[in-house]
Request: fold
Amino acid sequence: AQSVTQLGSHVSVSEGALVLLRCNYSSSVPPYLFWYVQYPNQGLQLLLKYTTGATLVKGINGFEAEFKKSETSFHLTKPSAHMSDAAEYFCAVSSTGNQFYFGTGTSLTVIP
Amino acid sequence: GAVVSQHPSWVICKSGTSVKIECRSLDFQATTMFWYRQFPKQSLMLMATSNEGSKATYEQGVEKDKFLINHASLTLSTLTVTSAHPEDSSFYICSAGGQGRGIYEQYFGPGTRLTVT
Reply:
């Protein structure tokens, strides 16, 4: 069985500050891990994904995430928040790349 | 990159009528398509998985007679909400599975906002 927990349904940061969105997963097999961003009334856009290899994954828009197996975590970070980063962020896990399990999402607010 | 479209992007219908939502993979063949439902401020809930040419597999608690899914070709899947009721109002998102860099990825459509009055 697989599941995803996103700690903090709402996160607020000042513009230019560090963004940290937390994601912990459970999986009985090596997981594929994903972060998606969703803007209002739009679908999901892939930010980054971890499959195998390097545990630090770089994505679009300056985001990156690190897969930490010992902590079963895949936290999303960005060194400097921009106003355009305000959105809903979803972490997802999959074992086959087929069926995805999504976290409940984190709403990011960027304060000017 | 892989592009998935949905039509319509939003629809309003009266209670008791049926609504069809199309999901198309524009530049790749999708052997599998997924349908999700998203309530306001909530996560995506997988409704069903459809494979081209076969019956869809529904998640527990999803009424297959109410949410009819057809995956007639490798580029098109449709979701029909039959006898819609206000509680069916939601944001419906499809995704299509395709080969991407060695693993099976999902590419998401932009979603369809359904409002039942």
Summary: Residues 83 and 110 of chain A are 6 Å apart (CA to CA). Chain A has a mean pLDDT of 91.
